[in-house]
Amino acid sequence: MKTTAYASFNAEFTDKDREFLVTYFRLADTIADFIGPHCEVVIHSFESLEKSVVKIVNGHHTGRKVGSPITDLGLKMLSLIEKTGEVTPKSYFTTSKDGSLLKSTTCVLAGENGKPIGLFCINMNLSHPFPEIIKTLMPDMANSHVAVNENFSSCATDVIEQALDHAIQEIESDTSVNLKGKNKAITKLLLENGIFELKEATAMVSERLGITRHAVYKYIREFKS
């Protein structure tokens, strides 16, 4: 039986609200994949508090599955939202039924017209040996996670410049590319990596390679056709 305090959330749920919740499902998978198997990610819906869990990844940490109810802490947060409108994310430590120590954070999800429609929760199980947890966060060439290069920059020109450096280095080390075809190969690699989506890319590439912008555009048209 639902209490009167929460009836408004259940009564006002719309198809749009449900669609908003579903859009967070992929984010839940992404965060769980990023942090690793010691991380549980849960999405609660306010539409049915008795069966609020609509998405859960690594639910074995708390023994829950889709269709499980909201927690007592979740009910307290819901009550606080109704009374104060407070939706600031909260981080805290708690314990699961088996006594495992969890570090958790909870974020309120908004639906149509900004109405709170659910909770996005992340629970990190800290009861496993710390070296075991750290191992899941480190690169391991034996598994599916492959090390890649990524440029973290504060401006677009830095991204282009670093991408150019990597592309030039990669093509120059490729013995199958002759001197005449080097610029074309570099342009192709940059195109495949999406660099020309940045506005200043064409000008910077032409200047760096010592060719005209027309030549860069010509290469791009050829590759796209």
From TrEMBL:
Domain YheO-like: 23-129
Coiled-coil segments on the chain, per record: none
Superkingdom of origin organism: Bacteria
InterPro entries given in the database record: DauR-like, DauR-like_HTH, YheO
Domain Transcriptional regulator DauR-like HTH span(s) in chain numbering: 164-221
PANTHER family: TRANSCRIPTIONAL REGULATOR DAUR
Protein name according to UniProt: YheO-like PAS domain
